[in-house]
Amino acid sequence: MFKKIGPGVLVAAAFIGPGTVTACTLAGASFGYALLWAMLLSVIATIVLQEMAARIGIIRQEGLADVIKKELKTPWAKYVVLGIIITAIIIGNAAYEGGNIGGATLGLEAIFGSEYTKLYAVIVAIIAFLLLYLGNYKAIEKVLVSLVIIMSISFIVTAIITKPNLSEILKGLFIPTMPETSLLTIIALVGTTVVPYNLFLHASLVSEKWKRIEDLPNARRDTIISIALGGLVSMCIMVVSTSISNKNIASVMGLAEGLEPLFGTTAKYFMGIGLFAAGITSAVTAPLAAAYVANSCFGWNAGLRDKRFRSVWMFIILTGVSFLLLGIKPIEIIKLAQIANGILLPFIAVFLLWIVNKKNVLGVHKNTIFQNVIGFLIILISVVLGVKSIIKVFGYSF
Fold it and tell me: How far is CA 292 from the centre of its chain?
């Protein structure tokens, strides 16, 4: 099984973090099944962009930043672009790491109680640290795949327990509607699924897994199946949220508590396990992605056990756990990350589309007209959502 599974599962693990779980929870609680189409759209966009990144990684056997660096011939443009990429990724991932560790901590609180919250945060950080310190890609992959399977089962079973209305689900998936005040929720759903750092992570990881052009079909299949599974999990969380009578829940643990009167403690434990797995997987992949980006931008050509590579992910984990231990709520820092993501996504999507259309980079495997049309649509949507997400962070003071 593990021979056939590739880095696509790690990308799914990266985007289904506590932020996604919370966004899906609030979307389902506030708007029922009405915004399922937004998640479906996000999953399709993610598959298209991640497939492009994977194609670059396999054919060039390099990271995405490496290829961008080589193709930008003007020195000042190269340094400006790489500076923006590395700053946004490292600041953004350091901010999100606090949320990732905090999410896994909430999962442990649901299972074991809230007496030792800070201890839980340290335990989560140590687990992430040890997995990355091993420096073994196959070991990291196996652990994260196992956690994704646990997370998927947890959230899917919870959704089945709530006995959802299938006809309403289909309507929500395929008939787009925008209920009043739903725009910012749609932005949140897209923003937590189509994640810029995953493009860099995927391009680097596929070159660790596959070495031949003949492996392209395997990478494409892996990407489609893994990200579709991630989308299914996200949709299940939205479906579960619709069954709560109290629509004023503010977090995923509010969802777990809201399920308890209806379905007993079983649903609460499933949600707790799922949230813990979601937090751990993202707490590993966010630092790993930042290290790969730094590796490419600075041209280190470093392995997983290199001191420079390790110093980057150690900084991300340490920053994330520090927010929690010092009592700083990660939400304000995450707002900074939202700004970084809002600016970075269309920026990176443009460069990605430029690269995958260059014959000297991908040869006969460059983009088709259909792929370009889809790519341009995604860029257009990401520009609009990027502007909206920045407005959301600053409020309506503009």
Answer: 16
CB distance 8 to 214 below 8 Å: no
Sorted by sequence, the CB contacts under 8 Å of residue 332 that are 6+ apart come out as: none
Specify the pLDDT at position 338.
60
Residues 76/81/83/85 CA torsion (nearest 10 deg)? -170
Interaxial angle between packed helices 75-112 and 265-297, expressed in degrees from 0 to 180 and rounded to the nearest 10: 160
Q: Tell me if 81 sits within 8 A of 72, measured CB to CB.
A: yes
Q: Cα–Cα distance between 52 and 375 in angstroms, integer?
A: 10
| Mean pLDDT of the region 316-330 | 82
Got the DSSP string for 120-132?
Answer: HHHHHHHHHHHHH
Query: 128 Cβ partners below 8 Å, 6+ apart?
Result: 101, 280, 283, 284, 287, 317
Region of 165 please: left (phi>0), alpha (psi -120 to 50) or beta.
Answer: beta
Q: What is the pLDDT of residues 109-162, one digit of tens each?
A: 878 877 788 899 899 999 999 989 987 777 887 888 888 888 788 778 878 877
pTM of the full structure = 0.86
pLDDT of residue 202: 92
Q: Alpha helix locations (H) across 242-264?
A: 252-263
End-to-end CA gap in the chain:
52
Q: How many other C-beta atoms are found inside a 10 Å radius of the C-beta of residue 138?
A: 11
- Buried/exposed 260-270: b ≥16 CB within 10 Å, e otherwise: eeebeeebbbb
Query: Tens digits of per-residue pLDDT, 94-106?
Result: 878 888 888 888 8
Report helix, strand and coil shares of the chain as percent, to nearest 5: 80, 0, 20
- CA dihedral (236, 267, 25, 200) in degrees, to 10, reads -60
Report the distance separating Cα 67 and Cα 60, nearest Å: 8
- One-letter amino acid of 326: L
